[in-house]
């Protein structure tokens, strides 16, 4: 079993269901994305550049769907939050599956992919 699959299997509900659903939307929307296991969490890269990662922050009760270049997306997608005073990363916080607006999320994935493809590097701040 791949480490990323193990990560998902070891999550408690409702986090496991939320993460598996978000994973399926990402992989179905962007077939070019590469799923990797880095820093003990799942990352979704385009080329060698990380675009999104999924995490459960300690002491929080939600899945953090974090966009590496989120600062460049937050004007078009106000659902992105700056949690933990991160300089560049912005995220969607999902407590339930119903919190995810799939249509908006798919648009966000396409925009994030376009922005990342135009960038020389993923981490610019």
Q: Tell me the overall shape.
A: globular
Tally the helices. Answer: 3
Low-pLDDT runs: none
What's the multimeric state?
Answer: single chain
Please list the strands of the largest sheet in the order they lie side by side: 1-2-3-4-5
What profile does the largest beta sheet have? 5 strands, antiparallel
Estimate nothing, just give the exact number of structural domains: 1
Helix content: 25-40%
Describe the secondary-structure layout.
Layout: H1 3-9, H2 15-29, E1 34-38, E2 41-46, E3 49-55, E4 63-67, E5 90-94, H3 102-118
Antiparallel strand pairs: 1-2, 2-3, 3-4, 4-5
Could you name the key traits of this structure?
alpha+beta, five-stranded antiparallel beta sheet, DUF1801 domain-containing protein, YdhG-like, 125 residues, Aspartate Aminotransferase, domain 1
